[in-house]
Write the structure tokens for this entry.
Amino acid sequence: MSWALIWLIVGIALVIAEVVSGDFVLIMLGIGALFGAGAEVLTGNLFIDVAVFAVASVGMLMLVRPALKRKLLSGSAHRTGIDALIGARAVVVSTVDFEAGQVKLAGDVWSARSLSEAHEPIAPGTSVTVVEISGATAVVSAEP
């Protein structure tokens, strides 16, 4: 069996094993082994293969893995559900005061109430900003 085939099998096995671990170490070593297989095909020298494997693996563990973990663990900046509605603009459909009212928000009519009791009722047609969602009620503010 040629060394290139051995490097290839080890590389693929490590990449598959990464599915179980999920820590991005085995995949970096697996890709390093694939680089080793490529070096074997190009040079045919086992010492060069091992050196290419070592340099590629250490390089990826030091450079690629931290960036990849940071990217995947940082979470999504895309808000969904009711979180996506906070800060959105809505149009008052029926007069909104501190107790009741309705706004058109994201194409749907929502029950709404004003953020502050001190403010005057908000007239229909006024553009408002959603400050929070309380149950099924949008809490809105007329200030931009």
